Amino acid sequence: MTRVQMIGVSKRYPGRGKSASPVVAVDDVTIDVASGEIHAIIGYSGAGKSTLLRLVNGLEHASDGRILVGDDEITALPESQLRRVRGRIGMIFQQFNLFHAKKVAKNVEYPLVVAGMPAAERRRRVAELLEFVGLSEKSGAYTDQLSGGQKQRVGIARALATNPGVLLADEATSALDPQTSREVLALLKRVNAEFGITIILITHEMEVVREIADRVTVMDSGRAVEQGDVFDVFSNPQSQTTKRFVATALPTEPRADRLDDLRERHRGRLVSLTFRDGDVDQPVVFRTLAERGVGVSIVHGGITDVGGRSFGKLTLELIGDDLKVEHAIAALAQETALEVLA
Ligand code: ADP
Asked: Which residues form the ABC transporter domain (predicted)?
């Protein structure tokens, strides 16, 4: 069981050209990943995600701050000891990073050879790993003959070979189609559940976070702008970046041009309601409207599911006598976050 702590971590690169100011790739980031947790770091390209990952496995040195993987303080260890620690940190990549000229079994065996494991033991371990990822029959195939999903399974088997306490996933499903991506994420969930391996994954896809993560850190321009339980962060986003990610997963409020269009076509009052599992009872909302003799139709929005809990925004057209509609709006405002759009 391995906890990973990043405490006030920064990474600056020298700027290009003589008078250029340094590039701050990672800016004072603190993330405490509990042992056995699946933690997603989401951000757009250039946010500093992969730099942060390279700092965690000690491939690069932090400019400031401390990083601990279990009891090992990565930021304080000399290179000779970092190699030992890296054996306990597995890594998988977007482009799989396999040896094309080697067979599947040899790819998986490679870290065991480096670790000096005897041949008979290696064979047993490789067979066990290939069985776990469902590729026993591909043991003798060359990796070029495999599909993208199979290649990533080999990558996962190789990363698990030395029994790491932590697995780092660098956009591990970004090169895969949605169905294959879900299968690989399901495999990572099994890795986490069956072996208790802590997983840190970086991604630019909200779907990935939603599918697999317990907690999430949203990064923007090197900074951790939002952090917490996946449901809490996405169902009540605070930063513009997080709001943009949420908008990729579900239609929230209508954009201004769409709103004009909705106003044209719907003559009733338009209100936007936020629904959040645990906070707002949908039947109560609809009953309130019915009891007050107000008609309703849903004209925009959606409800989605994160970590088994639902949230979303619905734009409703309220139809009926002006006064009744006003009273209904006042009553609904007691139940949930409500915005009158027209
Ligand atoms: P992400 O993984 O979120 O796409 P990166 O960590 O790759 O982001 O990059 C963060 C920022 O740091 C970018 O502005 C990038 O250009 C810069 N950067 C990354 N690596 C280097 C480097 N070796 N030298 C200079 N700048 C770098």
From this structure: 4-246
